[in-house]
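Subject: Protein record for review, amino acid sequence with backbone structure tokens
Category: Structural biology, sequence-to-fold work with a learned token vocabulary.
Format: Residues in single-letter code; tokens as whole numbers, each standing for a residue.
Body of memo: The sequence and its backbone structure tokens, given next.
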Amino acid sequence: MRRALTPRERRVGAWLLVAALLAAFYALVLEPLLITPLQAIDSQMHTLAEQRLRYQRLLAQRPALEQGVQAAQGDDSGLLPGGDPSAVAADLMQQVAQRVKDNEALNGGCQLTQRMPIVAQDQGASPFRQVRLSLDLDCAIQPLTTLLQQLESDQPLLFVDELTVRRATHAPASGGAGRLGVHLLLSGYLSPAPPAQGTP
């Protein structure tokens, strides 16, 4: 026969039942309906505050950025000077040939064996006209490195679109490295073409 619970045990049992009901109420009602949405709102508020701060910083930089854009719009030092692509290509060929000649006596030397301008007739929708040079060089490593650094760092801006380096056919079988056969495709850009007559 089961023993009857004492009043104290009934009180403890009642309190345990109340605690279990409160825990179930919190887990099943309060948390999904109140706590979780409030936490999501708090997370969204934190994200929005970070975004607002980032946009405020960007807005503070706006005057400096506008000044930089205005200064860059007036600076054509990165573009090739001139209006006729063929004349500019010829001038660019002479400049590159002079740079190669300047490196001729440097550690094994460098020679320009072939040069050819490539002027694209149809430039598509690009506002800038492209001028390209195809160059074949016979260079040692040091003069080639110096030449590439000069082409990269000088104004106007020139881009190496293609670079092929191979062992020269007349390189020595033993000893030093000799020279390398180099094919180089350079490109630069002219200022935008003036609008055609009759174009509004």
Q: What stands out?
A: Residues 167 and 174 are 13 Å apart (CA to CA). The helical segments are 7-74, 85-102, 141-153.
